[in-house]
Amino acid sequence: MTEHSSSEPRRGLTRRSILGGGLGLAAAGALAACSSNKPAAAGTSGGTAATSDAAGAAAGAPSALQGKKVMFVVHDKNPFFAPVQKGFENFGKAMGWTTQFMGPPSFDQTTVVNMMKSAVSAKPDGLILTRIDTTSYDDVIKSAIAAGIQVILSNVASEGYEKLGVGFVGQDFVPAGVVAGQQVLKAIAKHTGRKDGAIIIGKIQAGNSALEQRGQGIKQAVDDYNKANGTTFTTEDLMVGTDEAAAVGKIGDRYTRDPNSIACWAGTAFECQFVSTWAKSKNLVGKFANGGFDMTTPVLAGITDGSIDYTIGQNPYAQGWVASALLAQQIYPGYPSFHYDTGAEVVDSANVAAVTAREAKLAS
Amino acid sequence: MAVTTMTDDVAVRDVGSSPWRRLLRVHEFGVLVATAVIFLYCALFVNHFLTSENLLSVAQQIAFIGIIGTGMTLLIVAGEIDLSVGSQYGFLSVVMAYTLTEWHLPILVASGLVLVLGALIGLVFGVVTTFFKVPSFVVTLAGLGILRGFALLVTGGVPMQGSTSLRYHSITGGNAIGSLAAQTVWMAVVMLAFGWILSRTKFGFDIYATGGNMKAALNAGIRAVRVKIICFCITGALCGLAGILLVGWLGSANPLTGNGFELSVIAAVVVGGASLAGGVGSITGTLCGALVAGLIANALVLLGVDGNWQQVATGALILAAVLINRFIATRQPSMR
Amino acid sequence: MSVLEFTDLRKRFGGVDALRGVSLRIGEGEVIGLMGDNGAGKSTLMKILCGAVRPDSGTITMDGAPLHMRSPRDAAAAGIAVVYQDLALVDQRDVATNVFLGQEPTRHFVVDRRRMRREARQILEDLSIRIPSVRLPVGGLSGGQRQCIAIARAVHQGGRVVLLDEPTAALGPEQQANVLRLITRLRDRGTSVVVVSHNVDHVLAVADRVVVMRAGQIQGIRDVHATSATDVVGLILGDAASEAVSHMTEAATSASAVNPLEPSRSA
Questions:
Q1: Which residue is closest to A49 within chain B, CA to CA?
Q2: Is domain A45-171+316-342 given the CATH code 3.40.50.2300 in the classification?
Q3: Beta pairing class for A310-313 and A345-347
Q4: B252 close to A (CB below 8 A)
Q5: What are the sequence ranges of the domains in chain B?
Q6: From the candidate CATH numbers 3.40.50.2300, 3.40.50.300, 3.40.50.11890, 3.40.50.40, the one assigned to the domain spanning C2-266
Q7: By Cβ atoms counted within 10 A, which residue in B51, B292, C39, C72 is the most buried?
Q8: Longest dimension (CA), chain C
Q9: Partner-chain contact A23 B51, CB within 8 Å
Q10: Structure ipTM over 0.85, yes or no
Q11: For B238-288, what is each residue's pLDDT tens digit?
Q12: Residue B255: strand, helix, or coil
């Protein structure tokens, strides 16, 4: 009996140690699977490893720029960033760089900062970041610069970025908002000829300075128009989020509250695609104006079928390509970067076919 | 009788185990091995991993999971859960920034206020859960929405500036010694303190008893309801501490701070060997759970792997850890 | 001399008279077997004695002094401990912690685990309870061992009167024997025990007196040496049914010592 009772735990221990080892192996296996995926992912997405093949492909790049590693961290990996990534990777491919594009699946400040910190630890030669508020990302940007990494901002920079000594490739959001506001008023005149009513300024995300500034621009344009023409348009904000089903629900609820009050849905990002989905399902297309920002596939499709009146492009491809190019000249020969405005391109029924054909080149 | 002769022969082994055997027997053994294996793998195969800068950076990255996970560990061991920690953390960050910039309160006063407010939020959850017998899952799910809403209302949806005090920044977000981040030190202090409380003190023993068998605890004269409420309050206060550190570190509070954070925290606690049924879990385990998540996130970036794999790897890890815990629990009740 | 005495306890729940005037004196080191059909008032009486329910009227005295209990805490302070099966132990915690549950020895807020283990071992030995290690989680122990640990705790935590609710239910025969032996050991140490059980054989094996309740009143009190299983079953069932059952009971108990009232439990 004594022997039995003392042998019992030993058997338990063996089994447990096997289990522990199993977990460890499983975890290692998962990591191995991820890392073995790397060459394939790099191949398909255009980021090339710094191998002799890659060097051959990039024969045109000066030797001081060859074999560089460049990383791009965005605050929220949503569909908007697909062409940004494409521009970034295509430039990298042309130069023979190793590229890595990443961002959290949903926005969280700390997660973004952590991802940026890990990127700094990876010691790339260049780093492209989005800075969506005025303080949170400054420490990590400074630490990257201190570590000798060339840094440039893309897409969103927020006030005061110049004092960090970095450049920015992206839209000037307030002026872009003003351009959007002018399109709003044009579209309202076309559809309804109303002189009053609410312009609903949609938001997909709280806490993003870019969206706030575009909203400001729209309000500014509407105020100016009211003063000049004696109209009484009002503006109000509506947070819809990025989840389509939830967004459609919120849009429907706002409409139900006071259907006749709405003159226009004016998004600060790609909310107009949600409005389009909703309006088509309720047979309300044409009862009000609808528009927004960005050139994602559903938005362009909406302009083609008439459920969206306009969108304001910000040339996302340039936010990848030009940012990389400015980074390249920072690395060699070493010019400081500057602000490159990627503009506010108005897309409506007149030019949507050409724009769609252009954007389709980035789809595959 | 047969029973007497059998039991008389059973050897008494109250002190027999060597430290090594005791280590093998602990709950956290699985996650300890996983942490060690992942660490070794990274050290051998991942470039730039084994530098002090990077390791200290990982230690900083898990600080918030560690601090809030400490409260969550107490709650889960006590048989309850708080799904609102992400929203609490976000709301309290916003309140911290608001009281600093709008009310111009001194930093210490604002910090005290935020800690007390966090504890009060926990008190409300605890009281609703225990007195009105609403499962904490439901109560805190409601809290998740309410507090996120308040965070957005207070800020109007835009990030709110915090303080520009350099002293505040260096205490919360600067470096303590070399590249050792202040946040890591804060996490270490919190985890050591509550690790000691949970494993050594009467209150810690009461938490385990409450979560293991609430009726037995009540029968034994333990004030189990009060124990649960205190655990909710501690969790709320730790969310407040995380908020204070965040605002000092980043200089602003985003109303979306902690969006989805509750899942990372619960994952760390569960991977660390805690049982959602209550009565099982430890701070050491939670630290390892947070470390595993932090190491994987860091290694995938260093390896240049698509960020979406991080989600897959984290999910797979949670599943594996829970399955192993279940396997041990069913196969070896006497060794639990 | 009597340790615990209660006089004319009454309790109504809504329109139902759960207790209709119950009185009893329990002596030091006396084992009382409390029996009765479901709804006879046993559990209400137990709940009153352990402080969980307050009687509408009646008095309880301990060592001759009146006792007013507002909670189980008060009962425990007065030396009345109750052991409910499966409501007593925390499975995940070890034996020593369970013996001291809620009353761990502390030194400056820190639980003195070494002392706790040492004393737990001593308590188990005093009561001749065999457990291989006080470090084992109780979840892995047998039902009999668990019951013994629960009883050991009740005694250790100052229980001079220990109330046991179905201590042998759902146990194997060997484990039942262990628990019954432990009850007789408690009596030898001078602890008074009230055993609520449906099993006549077990009650007759350990009790000094059998108290049978029916419809909120005490139907009868018997000295175990001057009664039989048939007699007790008759009291439990009442006059009408007793005649029919008595033959069956006698036949069954003499043949296999299996209680016909509890075929599944004692099997």
A1: B304
A2: yes
A3: antiparallel
A4: yes
A5: 51-259
A6: 3.40.50.300
A7: B292
A8: 65
A9: no
A10: no
A11: 999 999 999 998 888 888 888 889 988 999 999 888 988 999 999 999 999
A12: coil
